[in-house]
Design a protein that fits this description.
Jelly Rolls, 283 residues, 14 strands, 8-stranded antiparallel sheet, binds 2-oxoglutaric acid
Length: 283
């Protein structure tokens, strides 16, 4: 692998790998995506039903897990991640699916996945795989280098008036123990379009956007010109991955309070390598 790509991932927290998946591999991913939509897990959220518009987001679906483990073992992603990190090994964690149909769909709010998942260390990565050609205007956006900056409190995604509504704690009440509240990236961009260094790419089917889950990312809305998006996100980790607890273990739904790997994560001490025999090794 090109050293420049490794450096870009280390420094920027996101890279685009064009044509990483063949048409046959992409078709297998699409079949798994469609199956996951038809067989939702306990965290699935659906919106706009019966309006001609549709939104479906599902994270860490335990029913989809065995199928996805088998799929991931057949894809070139594990080796790609190990090469990108410079790691000996890579493991697959779990998926998230994003469906937005009918031209209506708010932006995915800015967030870091590490506000919801107890993850530390360098060797983490999301493979963002969209089945449509996604224009740049509708692309996922990443704040360059933000995976090397503060770990912010997450958004609850629940307050339409406050995209930074804190998930774990109100800093004014929790004081120094709280993680800082996220910047309101969209408000700051409205005031100053150059406020942030934002990375984004238009993608073609087969391209894979790789982003570090500690990076601040968001966006990828649909609109009248690009009405439908179907995206499968697969999350991986390598040798330098540790258990790094959340401030409030009862708030995320995906950590020790979750459904997937709950017991395995409960057995890990802060700072311990993120390992359990149940994680599927893919490199
Ligand atoms: O595709 C999206 O709308 C959001 C993607 C995302 O949050 C992720 O890959 O972690």
């Amino acid at each position: 692998m090109d050293e420049a790509l490794r450096r870009a991932y280390r420094e920027d927290g996101a890279v685009m790998i064009r044509g990483l998946l063949s048409p046959a591999q992409l078709a297998q991913c699409r079949a798994a995506f469609d199956w996951a939509i038809e067989n939702p897990g306990p965290h699935a959220s659906k919106m706009y039903a019966n309006t001609g518009q549709r939104s479906h987001v599902d994270n860490c679906n335990p029913i989809a897990k065995p199928k996805l483990d088998d799929l991931v073992a057949s894809l070139p992603l594990g080796r790609t991640f190990a090469d990108l990190w410079g790691a000996e090994h890579a493991w697959y964690f779990a998926e998230e699916v994003f469906l937005k149909e009918g031209g209506v769909g708010a932006r995915t709010l800015w967030h870091q996945d590490t506000s919801y998942l107890p993850w530390g260390g360098q060797h983490w990565g999301n493979a963002w795989i969209s089945f449509e050609a996604v224009p740049k205007a509708n692309a996922l956006e990443i704040l360059r280098g933000s995976h090397r900056g503060p770990r912010y409190d997450g958004t609850t995604f629940m307050d339409p008036d406050d995209p930074t509504d804190p998930l774990h704690a109100d800093p004014q009440q929790a004081g120094a123990a709280a993680w800082p509240r996220m910047p309101d990236v969209e408000a700051e961009r409205r005031a100053n379009p150059a406020a942030f260094d934002v990375l984004s790419w238009a993608t073609e089917p087969g391209d894979v956007l790789i982003l570090h889950p500690a990076s601040l990312h968001g966006g990828a809305p649909v609109d009248a010109a690009f009405p439908n998006r179907h995206t499968l996100v697969l999350r991986f980790f390598g040798d330098d991955a540790t258990f790094s607890p959340l401030p409030d273990e009862s708030r995320s739904g995906y950590a020790r309070d979750g459904v997937l790997f709950k017991n395995e994560m409960s057995a890990l001490e802060p700072g311990a390598p993120f390992r359990a025999p149940v994680f599927r090794q893919v490199a």
